[in-house]
Amino acid sequence: MSYQVPVECLNEIFEHLDDKKTLYSCLLVNHFYCKISIRILWRNVWKDIWCNRFKMTYNQFLRMESSILSTLFACLPKESKELLFKKGIFISTPTSKPPMFNYPSFCKVLSIERLF
Q: Which InterPro entries match (predicted)?
């Protein structure tokens, strides 16, 4: 007989993980674990990159920031993308497929200082 841990319990456990590597590993377990982990990892995604900026080259840092912006851009409705395009703001998306999650809904902190 297999038992499934209630989502509330898993959420509580994942919230107390201080190790980002463990949360990244949870992304690969199954969709259930992935959904919980992604919500936590994207809560303040800018902070994680900013705190680790000295552990990577400047180009790696820019690529990570660009990747986050591209992912957020991919989540925008078509009308918003068209408006940005008309205003001369071009952000490429990593794929034409819609994102697996609504990543902006997980972001609780938006760092605009790095956007300018």
A: F-box_dom (IPR001810)
